[in-house]
Design a protein that fits this description.
By secondary structure, this protein is of the alpha+beta class. Helix content is about 45%, strand content about 25%. A hairpin with a 2-residue loop joins strand 2 and strand 3. The longest helix is centred in the N-terminal third of the chain and has 31 residues. It is elongated.
Length: about 190
Amino acid sequence: MTIAQNVRSHLQNKPYLLEALEKGIVNLSELSRQIQEELQIGNTSAVKAALRRFSEELQKHKQKREEKVLQVLKRSAMAVYDRKSVIITTKEINTKTGMKVDLLGKVVYLLDRSDMPERASALVKHDNCTMIVVHSPKELEATPGVVAFLTTLLAEQNVNIIEFISCWTETIIVVEKKDSLKAYQVLSNLVG
């Protein structure tokens, strides 16, 4: 394995370093010294050269990937549904509306707050939620990074996602009511 291959392999499971390299905000000299020590490579210059080439490639790929993500989001539409509840339980709930996701030994329900059963024994219950649905063109399914882009964007604004479902062309994001305006503002700048 060449030094360049060794460096790339070492970085593949370090997303924070990959992001810093993509953004060009990492000190390549310091990172190459750290990688040289970790991998016990004798040639710092070769490690730094490999990092520089890898960083340039990452920046080109990131730009192309981000452009594709933004194109998909610009052709998307958004709907907001208030007064939602999320309940996670180990037992089935008799309800005629809402969404249900069966997990191993648990069931997640997304319901209108008014349809929430009074006596449901819940592991987790969120009563005052807002559901934001992003309706995207079918190219969404073949565009890597859309989900990561949306979740990172909301996380950077300190918006906590209670539930997240991505199915074909629909991306469903459930947030607490207190975060709904901020989430809407952030997403509406991108969508449609």
